[in-house]
Amino acid sequence: MACSLDFIEFVSSQIASAGMVRYRKMFGEYMIYVDEKPVIIVCDNIPYVKEHEAIESMMQSAERGFPYEGAKEHYVLDVSRSDFAVKLVKTLAEVLPYPKSRKKKK
């Protein structure tokens, strides 16, 4: 089941104060970027964030899951708690690297 655009816009609005938020459709699912860093992957209308030591203490009781077959385990982000989601996303955006730029094929 693919994600609904309404849900993507809801997630984006919940974390809007974390920085510059944009999203991109990828293979029927979405990646949400904050300040040009990929922070949240949304699959089947479930927002996931990468397991990272910077947010480990914040996500101790969080549900975990696999966003897609073959993926590593991720935390499921509760975006209904906007203040918490913004704090977590800001923390992740600080420690995650920018995506590597791809070289164009000639």
State the secondary-structure class.
alpha+beta
Largest sheet: 6 strands, antiparallel
- Label the CATH architecture: 2-Layer Sandwich
Oligomeric composition of the shown chains: single chain
Number of domains: 1
Shape summary: globular
- End-to-end Cα distance, whole Å, is 36 Å
* Rg of Cα set: 13 Å
- Measured as a percent range, the helix fraction is 10-25%
CATH class category name: Alpha Beta
CATH H-level superfamily:
YgaC/TfoX-N like chaperone
Look up the CATH topology.
Answer: Yope Regulator, Chain: A
- The counted number of beta strands is 6
Protein name: TfoX N-terminal domain-containing protein
Question: Could you characterize the architecture of this molecule?
Answer:
- This protein is α+β, with helices and mostly antiparallel strands.
- The chain has a single domain, classed as 2-Layer Sandwich (Yope Regulator, Chain: A), CATH 3.30.1460.
- It is 23% helix and 27% strand.
- It has helices at residues 5-14, 82-95; strands spanning 21-26, 29-34, 37-43, 46-50, 64-65, 74-76.
- It has a six-stranded antiparallel β-sheet.
- A hairpin with a 2-residue loop joins strand 2 (29-34) and strand 3 (37-43).
- It is globular.
- The model has no long low-confidence stretch (mean pLDDT 91).
List keywords for this structure.
single chain, alpha+beta, Yope Regulator, Chain: A, 6 strands, globular
Please render the helix and strand layout as text.
Elements lengths: L4 H10 L6 E6 L2 E6 L2 E7 L2 E5 L13 E2 L8 E3 L5 H14 L11
Antiparallel strand pairs: 1-2, 2-3, 3-4, 4-6, 5-6
Protein name: TfoX N-terminal domain-containing protein
Organism: Prevotella scopos JCM 17725
